Amino acid sequence: MAYQYSKGWFIQQLKQKGLSKHPIERKKLELYKTSIIRNLYVEYCDSNTKE
Question: In sequence order, which residues have a C-beta less than 8 Å from that of residue 19 and are 6 or more positions away?
């Protein structure tokens, strides 16, 4: 179990949505910094943001 909003938590949420690699660079998510993973989370998983 990962702390909420930690790097591990963001990776868990993205993997639950079926995203295990970066959509453009096709590298494992674990290789990226937290800020990049958080931006992917906001783009693909967060339903509270308005576009």
Answer: 29, 40, 44
Sign of CA dihedral 14, 15, 18, 20: positive
CA distance 41 to 36: 9
Q: Which are the contacts of 5, defined by CB distance < 8 A and separation ≥ 6?
A: none
* 9 touches 2 (CB < 8 A): yes
pLDDT tens digits, residue range 1-51?
Answer: 889 999 999 999 999 999 999 999 999 999 999 999 999 999 999 877 555
Instruction: Name the pTM for this structure.
Output: 0.85
